[in-house]
Design brief:
There is one protein chain. This protein is of the alpha/beta class and 258 residues long. Helix content is 38%, strand content 23%. It contains 10 helices and 7 strands. A 7-stranded mixed β-sheet has the order 3-2-1-4-5-7-6, with helices on both faces.
Length: 258
């Protein structure tokens, strides 16, 4: 797993946190005594869960030690621990009424095996609540893949795979492992002051696996090439801003009662 830079990630923290707030609002009214924020990052989504369920014991987990250190600083009253969600989950050491995951699972392969495994973290009647970017149709991810596949970069870079299933595939999978579930999509339209801001957003997330494969000079040139592509893809609006379209996929799945 590449290293994460919490400072870079937090440059757009308000916009990055909006989907976790929207997901948490869908959980209004459920009873939660113990909750886990899986892929907690710098703790922004963990704070959302804690605010939604103020009487619950909330924990955060992430694979990145850099993110965990930042989360502990940002949320001093919450316990955080390292967990590799692609592994056997033994680090969790307990089960929960809610497993909440915002913009994390797209980094982990084999969702047909992953989701049943995550359900084992739940108590009977517990809830798995997930948000993941829809990378296959996201313009920036399409630009990134197109750039990586060019003659200039294909010998230096390995494309990042799309781990997400199609909505219909999630539907079939959840119907097998869940007592009840719902799926939905939301498209966020973020206001960006310039194209460089979109670039900075992706330096904190989707560009990392590519930049870490390159030396300093090549990384700078790859960044310039992507910026040029962004300027072609995203026109400047009448007020001088850039309209940054970001589609995201959500689901909530309930575990069967014992």
């Amino acid at each position: 797993m590449p290293n994460w830079n919490p400072i870079q990630y937090e440059k757009f923290l308000k916009d990055r946190t909006r989907p976790s707030r929207d997901l948490a609002q869908r959980l209004h009214g459920i009873e939660v005594n113990k909750a886990l924020d899986l892929g907690c990052g710098p703790g922004n989504s963990t704070k959302v869960v804690s605010e939604m369920f103020p009487h619950a014991v909330v924990q955060g987990a992430d694979i990145s030690e850099e993110m965990l250190a930042r989360a502990r600083r940002n949320c001093p009253g919450i316990a955080f621990f390292r967990l590799d969600a692609s592994g056997d989950l033994h680090e969790a050491k307990q089960t929960y009424d809610l497993v909440f995951s915002n913009a994390c699972l797209q980094w982990i392969p084999n969702h047909r095996q992953l989701l049943p495994k995550l359900m084992t973290l739940l108590n009977p009647g517990g809830i798995l609540a997930v948000q993941i970017p829809i990378q296959r149709v996201h313009p920036v991810h399409i630009l990134l893949h197109s750039l990586v596949e060019t003659e200039k970069w294909c010998k230096k870079l390995t494309p990042r795979p799309y781990n997400n299933l199609l909505p219909e595939e999630y539907y079939d999978l959840l119907s097998e492992i869940s007592a009840d579930f719902e799926l939905w999509e939301t498209v966020y339209y973020h206001r960006m002051p310039d194209h460089e801001s979109i670039l900075e957003w992706y330096k904190g997330a989707g560009m990392r696996p590519y930049l870490e494969q390159l030396g300093e000079e090549d990384a700078a040139e790859f960044t310039r090439d992507l910026l040029y592509a962004l300027k072609e893809q995203y026109p400047i609006r009448k007020n001088g801003e850039i309209l940054f379209r970001f589609p995201r996929f959500f689901f909530i799945a309930k575990k069967g009662e014992a």
